Amino acid sequence: VINLVTMSTLQQYTPMTTLEDLRNSGDDLEVRFSIEMTVPSRSAIDAPVVRNVLVADMFKLEARLNQVVIDRNRLTVTR
Hints:
Elements: H1 2-6, E1 16-25, E2 28-36, H2 47-56, H3 58-64
Antiparallel strand pairs: 1-2
């Protein structure tokens, strides 16, 4: 996730990624992380934009995790 964010179009906002929680959830692995960025107050960057950036590059993370499938419908980004 860290490389996914720092190498994305969000890199100019100096994102800092922190793993918050990692746990089994039935047959799935639930990963909670936070991203902190310095964004100008008049910027159009918001939670949906960050989510779209993550989804657009999700295949890179899946490839690094031995071709696991990440359910894009369960990806939640909040402010």
